[in-house]
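Below: protein 1.
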Amino acid sequence: MSRKRKPLPLLENVTIEAVAAEGKCVAHVGEMVVFVPFVVPGDVVDLRVRKKRRSYCEATVERFIKKSDVRTEPMCPHFGICGGCKWQTLPYEKQLEAKQQQVYDQLTRIGHVQLPQITPILGSQQTRAYRNKLEFGCSDKRWYTAEDLARLPEGVGLGEPAIGFHITGAFDKIYPITDCQLMDPLQNELRNDIFDWAVAHDLSFFDTHKRTGLLRNLMVRNSNTGEWMLVIQFCIFPEGGAGDHYDPVAAAADDKLFETEDGRKALALMEHITERFPQISSLLYVNNTKGNDTIGDLPLRNFHGTDFIYELMEDLRFKVGPKSFYQTNTEQAYHLYEVARRFACLTGEELVYDLYTGTGTIANFVAKGAREVIGIEYVPEAIVDAKENARINGLENTKFFAGDMKDILTDDFIARHGHPDVIITDPPRAGMHPDVVSVILNAAPQRIVYVSCNPATQARDLSLLDADYEVAQVQPVDMFPHTPHVAERRAASQKIIGPGLREIDCRGLPQEVSWLVQEQAVAGWGKASPIPAKVIISH
């Protein structure tokens, strides 16, 4: 006999006090810290506790008693469901204030970093339609809210398909999106048309648990040159597929895919898209029969147009492929890179290392101001694009290398290619491997520019760099309006100011977890290995 769970309490007449992290706000009930999503400071609410811990709990709004004077109406009809833009009800100027404060709190409270005065955060010029890339999952069974279920006619089943976003915290639950405000309106028209056509022509949608269903994922990109790219993930099992010795990579490259029934439906869909949307200059597809949606290890096929699009930045053109990383806010990316270039203090005589270079955007962006730039990146396809970007722009002072950073960037590599005067590093969310940090310290560059997207790992890396460097400047840059992320990337620059002492200018920290929770999570290493004494952050 199962034991009945004790109902979680209702917290009445609670005033929301301040913005926290992850799109949540914070309040206090007695000694308990309460984190609440989809509210703003000044809201007075009744809260239903959903998760309780010793020192804090998480709750959702049961009833609004009084709405805050600063609250604004959300721009998106899906607000509160998909979870992508959790700060829509907070005026943009208040979002920027909160992000600036989060940067300060994270470095001082978690990293124990003494900061100079932080430069005011650079806000995004566009707060709508600012993204150049979105991905949409496909599902054979959509997610229903309580309101959706209440509107369903009696006797109607719950097997309706969907193209949309994953709901917060669930990889297998897709909520249908009809009107996303983050990208040009054409992506809404394109996505909705694909859904309608697929339903009308009996295309199956992907079942995450069974790993079957033809239509799996859509990736849409556009650029400031007016070009559009669409990548469609199908799931087609050819003859003899899905067995014990089945090779998904070989299946992705199978030339006989279109001879199957699903293959013929996939072909018809792409022919429809080509005819219906002449704006698409690059239409690609991939057959993904794996257990996840990643396509980095799978061969992509070009169905129509080119297999790339171009982005412009100053007088440079950047070739962006389907697997390429490029900042998803093109206009703000320019401001981000401009700050990184300024932090590098280039005179034309420097050897620059650009770590985690991607398609070589930063490397090529700073190349005209440097003697030579060496870029290193894990993704081989990105390095091919980086070299092509250098060629397109007539840059002859760049070199690019593909491979795992900790394996490529070694003391021997530096001995062969020269000791860097400046290192620019833009690592993934996991930050830099300790071996990479060690090599950077041994190389002793005059300046380090650290571009980052994860406050916890940046703090960890800065604590290691603190052996020889000290943070000097921070310039926050907002890359994602209406989201809690303070920055998609952060930049730090370092200058030698004395024997064994350097400055580090840090930029843009996205805040993903409340500093209260984070502080507990990192307390173990934070006390033993304090973060560098001075940090400047921008996002």
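Below: protein 2.
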Amino acid sequence: MADDTILKLFGFELKKSNKGSVKQKLASVVPPTDPEGAGYVSAMAGHYGHYLNVDGEISSKDNHQLILRYRGVAVNSEVDMAVEEIVNEAISASELESSVQLVLDKVQVPDKIKKLLTEEFDNIVGMLNFNELGHDIFRSWYIDGRLYHHLVVNEANLKAGIQEIRQIDASKIRKMRNVKYKKDPATDVKIVDEIDEFYLYEEKPGAQASAVKFSTDSISYVSSGLLDEYKKKVVSHLHKALKPINQLRMMEDSLVIYRLARAPERRIFYIDVGNLPRGKAEQYMKDIMTKYRNKLVYDASTGELKDDRKHMSMLEDFWLPRREGGKGTEISTLPGGDNLGQIDDILYFQKRLYRSLNVPVNRLEQESQFSLGRSTEITRDEVKFQKFIDRLRMRFSHLFLEILKKQLIIKGIITPQDWDEWKNDIVVDYIKDNAFTELKEADLWRERFGLMQEATQFVGDYVSKEWIWKNVLRLSDADIEDMKKQIEEDEPEEGEEDALVPDEASAPATQSVDIKVNGEPVKSEIERQKSAEDEKKKKEKEQQKKERYIPSSEDELTEELTRYMAKLNEQN
């Protein structure tokens, strides 16, 4: 129990103005759903005054125990290997560039504002130390199913923005909602009047005497987005693996017990005791057992040999008495278990666990080889796994976007209305390090360009270039516009030389004005240069022809006959 008058809000609050707000409260008896799985509090009145019940249907102790179960499951070798595979795929580190970047291509704002947004985003990434601790932060969020950070500011100077970001243990804090109702005078039905949200931090979960209320603005919270079957509490991605991992552990333990009990071969000693009385027969049996059960064991710590005859277990040999008239003393052997090498049930539960972790089985099997083939060889499991990673990245991006929103509003760079307009266009881009994705994209573009070459011959008759861009290359309208602009920018570069040396057909009228001095036409400077260049080119071509010309024997005979006939004509 916690007194509402004692629990004051800790942390800063953004003062939201209601000016210009057109949003209207809608009457309903049901509070709006909360995808974050917040707990509900209820105000109660008792003999000693008013108090708040902050446990609701789900107590903080239960929430604490659930998170501890997730962390205990993550320690298992199979689960740890799967979690590492997911985290390594989602978060890639690079020494040359940041692990995450802000993409503002679709945001219609001036470049100056984009620069401010990018700088503040980089500042947040630096305060989180995400380039170094990104792997640990993402792993903690994936295992616990939720992630909390305290945004520390200087309340005396809020314009300075967030000064420090501190991670909070998810098992000690949770989101709460206090729903206040009022009666409708017409129908006398309770309708939702006001919803107050806050975060409750308990150093010792279950001991509400030490609870602290945090304002929603001072806490950054991102959940897994998964709720239990009752839609009341947030669960981790490891929640569906709790049962398979427990079943696998029990099967492994039972297998160990069975092998210890059935694996060794044991002998049966039938000792002939003759006609000895029962007491003497038992003593005789003990003497025989002591005589032949001398166990010398080696103590590795001291290097000594010791005689160990103190203990006898069921895994050792059996000694049975046999009366006179039997077969006498006999030794027989009991075989060990026959199916000790069969572990099909273990493999079944292991694959079931892998499927519950959303990781392809071939990635977790140590015997399987990793090969980079064509994209057509990529299995369906790999495609599903990549889509799962993309969903995780989109959900985890709320961490950066929520902190960025509060940072920009605190510093007065933007208003909450501006953020509501831009938030759907702001994208957090992660470094991708997936060979299968690169292969798929390369093969995809190869097929598209091949199809484009075949479809180009029908351009103008049956299809247009626009149709090929949209239906063959699968480009969006924005990509097509950008491509057209780039093509237009490249075209002048190719025709710059022709523009500098215009021909007679394209020469401007000012260059061909007929001006005469003393009856002789006067050429412009451009015409004179053009004439000189044309004459020079003509001479160069004639010289090249002469240089390239090598007369043959027939040509020489023809020339000789021509000269002889010309000489005869002159004489005549």
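The chain is about 45% helix and 20% strand.
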